[in-house]
Amino acid sequence: MTASNDLQRNTKKHFRLSPAARAFLALALVLLLGFVFNAHGAFFKLGTHRDALRQSSVYGILACGMTLVIISGGIDLAVGSVVALVAVCSALMAIHWNWSPWIVVPLSLLIGATCGAVSGGITALLRVQPFIATLAMMVFARGLAKHVSGGTKISTAIEQADKTYRYAELPKWFRAIDSRVLWGQVSVVTVVCAACLLVAFIALARHVWGRQLYAIGANEEAARLSGVPVIPAKIAAYVASGVFAAIAGICQAAQETQGDPEAGAGYELVAIAMVVIGGTSLMGGRGGVCLTLLGVLIIGYLEKILSINAVPEATRLMLTGIIIVVAVVAQRQRSS
Amino acid sequence: MLRLHAIVHLLLVIVILAGCSQSEPAAKSAATAGEKPKSDAPAASKTFTIGMSQCNLGEPWRVQMNADIKAAAAQHPNLEVIFKDAQNDTLRQRSHIEEFVSAGVNLIIVSPKEAEPLTEPIANAFRGGIPVIVLDRAVRGDAFTCFIGANNVQIGRAAGKWIAEHIGNDAKIVELKGLMTSIPGQDRHNGFVEGLGGKGKVVFEADMKWLEPEARKEMDSALARFDDIDVVYAHNDPGAHGAYLAVQAAGREKKPLFVGIDALPQEGVAYVSQGILNATFQYPTGGQEAIDTALKILAGEKVPKTITLKSRIFTKENVAAGGAVIEN
After folding, report:
1. CA dist B83 to B22, B53, B155, Å?
2. Chain A residue with Cα closest to B210
3. Rounded to an integer, what distance in angstroms lies between the CA atom of residue B229 and that of residue B247?
4. CA distance B21 to B96
5. Contact B221 A304 (CB under 8 A)
6. Backbone angles phi and psi of B135, in degrees to 5
7. Most buried residue, A63, A156, B97, B307, by most Cβ within 10 Å?
8. Which residue of A has its CA nearest to B218?
9. Distance from C-alpha of A151 to C-alpha of B60, rounded to nearest angstrom
10. What is the CATH number of the domain that holds A253?
11. pLDDT, tens digit, 9 for 90 and up, residues A178-231
12. In a domain? residue A11
């Protein structure tokens, strides 16, 4: 390598922004968009921001698990379907059977963990491509959700044997999840999402397992040779993704006051977009939860700003597409 | 690489197999020995097989349509209904029709996904001597026995009229539309505007894609922009329910009127009973009418080419009595 080449590289590096700075810039641009198109001042109301954060929360919880899986070099397409499966199961247990949350929540998380363990096991042990393994789980879990619910929503209107309906009370803890804390300024689901982000952050940045995931994502063979327990670490990533999806499923059911077997369709794509727009590499080995948080805010605020301005659907889709392309092209500069 | 290909192919086969419609002989099992067939049931001694192809069981309304057909057929022990679900796939639905023809069913009921691609298979079955009842969505031409469907423009108009009667001249209206690229969305919007007759003002409108979570998000935005909203008109009941949840979460003192469409027993009608919606307008499935018409056809009676279903309105006052029929 010649000296001039080296110099060039160094200068270039100097001017290049870090992924976090780039994501911050994107978020600032989106917020600026909100300042300009403020929908007669609606953007300056506190409630708008509270709602924007609440609406991004379910996606954000999914994005936590997705970050872990993507950093390990995989992908989890099943999370949207797991949201539906857990929404249906938790609504069934909580609304129809009136079980205590101390039973419903652990069982729901167990359902999510099982889904994750199965797709992780198929990927790590049978060496099936993560795309295929989780695609299979996506189809299967959606089918199971429809089977458990009988194809209809599990709501407070419960059909009885004689075709009449009895109306169940919505469980108090469902209401609690859809309520607000801190003088009514923060939704509980937002707090849940923040807690999930924190847990994922600690796991990735402060725990040995997180280091292992980075190593596996960067070069699986090298990781194996240097003694990283590749198979358990990878399966654990999918289990974590399943558990986060289960948490999202409970939040979804509580916010909808019902378990909808069609819920969460396409959510996996939003979660993946949030992770990637933040700057985590789809190739694995690079990224982090802080970047994902920025990605969640970018997409969440973009949706909110388009919504308060009542932008027609066609324009919304086109704008969202453009923003995703711009963000991804910006990320590619790093690898050039 | 070869191994990956093999896996992909295997998976595709599994997905296709899993996706293949499950046939389910339904009504036959209800051959309740003690229950007498209705006196007007034709040729009660003879057994008829009816093939029913549903375009997509992913929507509660279509699940209800199948349930209505099942319940209506259960009243007639001489009817056996075979249900198939095309899972929103036109070609799969086309093979349903062909399978029914080769199985030699006595009558076909089909709720088509799309008009164009299904016109020909339905016409072939019809010309081959099998009566065909087309439910909800029409096909081209007239090579079928009978079309049964509701009219979304009429229902939208009825909703508009009801709202106009309950609001002042300068009331603020939020319209949560299904999808304006879909015919039902356009019809429910156009009928509504007509029914309002210039009363009130639509201050906020958005596509909520027929989905409750989307409706809640859009309603949040409407609430952020307007302090007082008098009416929410949603193109389906889950949309109106999502808007209700948004208003409740915002803690507004004044609750707007919530009006939805579809009136499924476990959705819209239940919401009205629970005091969540002020009114819902039924989009009838036609399941009962399809079986009634099928019995007439099988008995050799003549039936009209088109049957337009009447909608019902459900409000707090009449929900216990099963709603009221809307004339016109």
Report:
1. 8, 6, 28
2. A262
3. 10
4. 9
5. yes
6. -110, 135
7. A63
8. A307
9. 7
10. 1.10.3470
11. 998 988 889 999 999 999 999 999 999 999 999 999 999 999 999 999 999 999
12. no
Determine the average pLDDT of the residues in A267-271: 94
pTM: 0.79
pLDDT more than 90, % of chain A: 64
Identity of the residue numbered A283 = M
Q: What is the domain count for chain A?
A: 1
Q: Average pLDDT, stretch A37-49?
A: 87
Closest residue of A to B14, CA-based? A136
- A/B interface, count of CB pairs below 8 Å: 99
- Each residue of B208-232: pLDDT tens digit? 989 999 999 999 999 999 989 999 9
- The answer to whether position A1 is within a domain reads no
**Residue among A200, A208, A207, A276 at smallest CA distance from A244:** A200
The residue type at A53? L
Distance CA A270, CA A62 (A): 9
Chain A partners within 8 Å of B265 (Cβ):
157, 159, 165
Instruction: Name which of A95, A84, A103, A59 is nearest A274 in CA terms.
Output: A59
- Nearest alpha-carbon partner for B252 in B232, B278, B229: B229
Give me the domain span that covers residue A170.
Answer: 19-335
Cα–Cα distance measured from residue A141 to residue A65, given in angstroms and rounded to the nearest whole number: 17
Nearest chain B Cα distance for residue A24, angstroms = 25
**Amino acid identity of A147?**
H
Encode pLDDT of B241-273 as tens digits.
999 999 998 888 789 999 999 999 989 999 999
* Domain presence at residue A5: no
Closest by CA position to B195, among listed B261, B287, B103: B261
The CATH H-level (homologous superfamily) assignment of domain B152-283 is: Response regulator (3.40.50.2300)
Q: Closest Cα to residue B38, out of B73, B83, B81?
A: B73
Q: Is the pLDDT of residue B194 over 90?
A: yes
**CATH 3.40.50.2300 occupies which residues in chain B?**
40-150+285-309, 152-283
CATH of domain B40-150+285-309: 3.40.50.2300
* ipTM metric: 0.75
On whether residue A14 sits in a domain, the answer given is no
If one counts every other C-beta atom within 10 angstroms of the C-beta of residue A335, the result is: 8
Q: How far apart are CA A123 and CA A130, in angstroms?
A: 5
